[in-house]
Amino acid sequence: MGWDEGNVFYSDQAQFPRREGGGSDTKHAALRKFKEFIRAFRSNNGDLPYRESLVHNTKFLLVAIEDLESFDPQLSENIRRLPADFLPLFETASAEVLASLRSKVATETGEMEEPVTGEVQILLSSKEDAISMRTLGADYISKLVKISGITIAASRTKAKATYVTLMCKNCKNVKMVPCRPGLGGAIVPRSCDHATHPGEEPCPIDPWIIVPDKSKYVDQQTLKLQENPEDVPVGELPRNILLSVDRHLVQTVPPGTRLTIVGIYSIYQAASTQKGAVAVRQPYIRVVGIEKTYDDSSGPSAFASEEEESFKEFARRPDSYKKICSMIAPSIYGHADVKKAVACLLFGGSRKRLPDGVRLRGDINVLLLGDPSTAKSQFLKFVEKTAPVAVYTSGKGSSAAGLTASVIRDGSSREFYLEGGAMVLADGGVVCIDEFDKMRVEDRVAIHEAMEQQTISIAKAGITTVLNSRTSVLAAANPPSGRYDDLKTAQDNIDLQTTILSRFDLIFIVKDIREYGQDKLIASHVIKVHANAGAPRRVTDVFEGENWLKRYIEYCRARCLPKLSASAATMLQNNYVKIRQQMRQQAHETGEATAIPITVRQLEAIIRLSESLAKMRLSVEATEEHVTEALRLFNVSTMDAARSGINQHMNMTPELKNEIQQAEKQIKRRMGIGSYISERRLIDELSRMGMNESIVRRALLIMHQRDEVEYKRERHIIVRK
C-alpha cells in the first residue's frame, strides 16, 4: 500500500477521500482555489467584490454560489455536495487572504507588524428555488439545502465550544480536541497518549477531564422554522424543523419573520429518544445563510420588466379603481362600498417614521357588523386568499396567547422560549377575525396594542420583549341579539367597547333588507353563480385572474408610498372639524354620547384611506379627488353607524310623548318594584285597555334605557327594578 515510504499522512485524509480523477480535490488544492476566488473574482462591472467586502467587513463574507460556479464549477459542486468538509476550508482561506491584505496596509503606515485577524464566517446565498420542507429526506443528509418558512420560536443564546481542552487526571498532559459544528459534540479519546517513563504508573483508561476555561467558544442559537401557511396542503398540520445558527447570525431573527435559509441538512442524537431506537437520529439544519423574504423594501428583482409595464399601464387607465373593486369578491352581489373598503385594506396606506422615532401605522382596519347571511365571512375568506400574507381565525376558537404570543417551556432544555401567534405570523399582511363579538373581553383587549401601535409587548416568565405585528385587521361580528334591530339604539346594537371601535378605520353596518326588487336580483345572481360554478371562465382581459390581483397588490405595496398634497390636507382639516361639530350637536340633542367615537384616530383613518386610493393608481401624492372618495367611504360606513338606531327624543310629537308617558304609568301600576311578568302577557293586558302595542314597546324600551326594568330569559320576562 505504500504506507511506510516516509510520507507524512494527516488524519484529515479520512475526511477527504481521494476521488476518481486524480488528487486535485485534496485539501491543499481546494484551499488554493478558494484563496484565488476571493482575491481574483471580478463581477460584471469589473471590480473585485469579495476582496473589497473582506477589507471593509472583517467578520463575515457573503458569497453567492452562482459567482463560485462561474469561477470554478468544481468548487461550487463540492460546496453543494460536501458542505461540512469544504466550508471550513473556505473560512480558513478567507482568514488567510485577510491576513495578507492586512499586512499590506500595515506596511504603508511604516509599522511592520503582522495584524491579528480573527476568524471569518462565510455566509452563502443562492438564487435557486427553495424546496419544500416535506421533501427533505435521507437523500439530503449532509448536503446543502434551501428552504423557506416562518420562524415561530427562538431560543436564548448559548455558548458552544469549538475546541475543548482536555487534561489527563494522572500526568496533567493537555490536549485540544475539535468539536463537531452545529449540534454535535466532541469526540474524546479513551486513553492518554503520554509516553510513560520507567517507574511511572501508566494512565488509566478514560483519564481526561475537561478544562472549560481554556476551551474556545462561539455563540449559538436554535430557531424553529415552520412552513409558510400558504404552502401547507389542505387538512395537514404545518411541519416545522429545528435550525441552528451560530456566530454573526445569532439574534438577528425575531419570531414571526419570514425567511429563506441556506443550510446543511444534518442529524443529531436527541437526548430523550425512545429506548431501543439506537440508530434513530433527529434532523436539523445548520444555517449558513439567511435571507429575509418579506420586508418593506422587498427587492425590485421580484417583478419582471414586462410585468411592471403591464401594472403601470393598468394604473394609467381611468377606470382602474372601478376595475379593482369589481375584482374584489366577484361572487358576492352588491355591497359596493364594502368592496371598496376591502380594496383599500388590501393596498394599505403609507407607514411613516417620524424624526423622534415614533411610527405611524399605514394599515387599515375594517369591521363588518350585521345580520347573518350577508356574506361577511365570504369577504374574510376572499381576503385570506388574495392578500400576499394572511391568517384567518375565528373569535370563539382563539385565545389572547394564540393571537399575540405565548411563552412555552422547551421539553429537553427546560427553558422558556417565545412562540408567535396569529398577529405575529401575519406581520406585513392581514388578520381576518370572524365572530369578533363572540371573543372573550380579555382576549379582545390583547389585540388593542397590536391594532394601533402595531407591536406586541410580552413580559412573561422572565422574557420581556416587543414583537412586530404590522397587520391590518378585518373583523366580522353580529349584534348581540343575532340580528340588527332598528328599534334599538346604536349602542345596544353594536355592544363593543369604544376603545376597540375607535381603532377600526371603517365600520360597516351590513343589513339584510327585505325588498322585492333587491331580493329578485340577489336570487338570480346566486343561482347564476351555482349554475356556472364548474364552467371554465373565459379571461377576456389581461388584467384578470386571482393571481394577477395578488401580484398587483404586492407591487403597489412595495413601490408606492403616496403623500398628501397641500390642497388635500386643507380640505381634510376643514371636513374633520365639521364632522366633530355635527357629532357634538347630535350628542347635545340626544343627551347621550354616540356609540362610535369620532376622534383623531378617525382623521388618521381618512388620511390612510386617501393614501391607499392613491396607491391603487400608483400615484405619488394623494389629491383632493382621493380625499373626497375617502370621506365618502367614511361617511357611508363609520358615520352612518354612529348615527344609526332610533333616537326617540328627536322625532317625537307632543301627543306621542304624552301617550308614552301614559303607557309608562300603566306599566308601573301593573308591576310593583321587584315583581316580574312575561312581556307578551303585559302587552296583551295593556292592549285590552286600548293602548297601541308599538307605544307599549317603546315605553318599555325607554324604561330599559333608564334602567327601570330589565329583561330576563332571552327577553321573555320583564323585571321591574
TrEMBL record:
Top enzyme category: hydrolase
Protein name: DNA replication licensing factor MCM5
Subcellular location as annotated: Nucleus
EC code: 3.6.4.12
Protein function: Probable component of the MCM2-7 complex (MCM complex) that may function as a DNA helicase and which is essential to undergo a single round of replication initiation and elongation per cell cycle in eukaryotic cells. Acts as component of the MCM2-7 complex (MCM complex) which is the replicative helicase essential for 'once per cell cycle' DNA replication initiation and elongation in eukaryotic cells. The active ATPase sites in the MCM2-7 ring are formed through the interaction surfaces of two neighboring subunits such that a critical structure of a conserved arginine finger motif is provided in trans relative to the ATP-binding site of the Walker A box of the adjacent subunit. The six ATPase active sites, however, are likely to contribute differentially to the complex helicase activity.
Record-annotated MCM C-terminal AAA(+) ATPase domain positions: 320-526
Lineage: Eukaryota, Viridiplantae, Streptophyta, Embryophyta, Tracheophyta
InterPro entries cross-referenced by the UniProt entry: MCM, MCM5, MCM5_C, MCM_CS, MCM_dom, MCM_lid, MCM_N, MCM_OB
Protein family according to the UniProt entry: Belongs to the MCM family.
GO biological process, one term: DNA replication initiation
Pfam family, any one: MCM_OB
Entry's transmembrane regions: none
UniProt cross-references to SMART domains, sorted A to Z: MCM (SM00350)
Record's keyword terms, sorted: ATP-binding, Cell cycle, DNA replication, DNA-binding, Helicase, Hydrolase, Nucleotide-binding, Nucleus
CDD domains: MCM5
MF terms in GO: 3'-5' DNA helicase activity; ATP binding; ATP hydrolysis activity; DNA replication origin binding; single-stranded DNA binding; single-stranded DNA helicase activity
GO cellular-component term (any): MCM complex
Catalytic activity, reaction form: ATP + H2O = ADP + phosphate + H(+)
Subunit-level organization: Component of the MCM2-7 complex.
